Amino acid sequence: MPRIKYQEAIGQTPKRGRPALAVSDAEKARLHRLYIIQGLSVRDLGRNLGIGEKAVRLRLHAAGVPMRSNAKRPRLRYVDPVRVYSDVILHGVEGAAKRLKMTKRALQYHLSRLRREAKSE
């Protein structure tokens, strides 16, 4: 004989699955500040909060904080093009690439992109 669950016996529908994670407004603001504004990684956030990476991701999702892409951003996006060109002139492409902590090929690609942008303006 199958077992009758209590909620079904009294006419209620039983809840299925894990309850939703509740995140307070203060915690939402803190997660937003640390992850979006300060730019901490999920790993650093976990160390800061004393929880695991999966728990951090669940809390960020529950708080509605948009996750960042895992793709690496080009470092030259934040470097002044004049400084890049002067480094290339002074140290050569290989030396400038080492100083900017990137590969020679990546630096050559960005230099060609900067040249194309300069021509189009």
Task: Give me a quick take on this structure.
This protein folds into 2 domains: 21-70; 75-120.
Task: Give an overview of the whole structure.
By secondary structure, the chain is mostly helical. The protein folds into two domains: 21-70; 75-120. Helices cover 60% and strands 0% of the residues. It has helices spanning 6-9, 25-37, 42-49, 53-63, 81-99, 104-120. The termini are far apart.
Topology:
Elements: H1 6-9, H2 25-37, H3 42-49, H4 53-63, H5 81-99, H6 104-120
Task: For this entry, give a set of tags.
121 residues, mainly alpha, 6 helices
Instruction: Return the structural class.
Output: mainly alpha
Helix content: 55-70%
Q: What's the total number of strands?
A: 0
In terms of DSSP E residues, the strand content is under 5%
Order of helices and strands: HHHHHH
Mean pLDDT: 85
Which stretches of 5+ consecutive residues score pLDDT under 50? none
Number of domains: 2
State the separation between the terminal residues, measured CA to CA.
Answer: 80 Å
Major sheet summary line: none
Number of helices: 6
Shape: elongated
Evaluate the radius of gyration. 25 Å
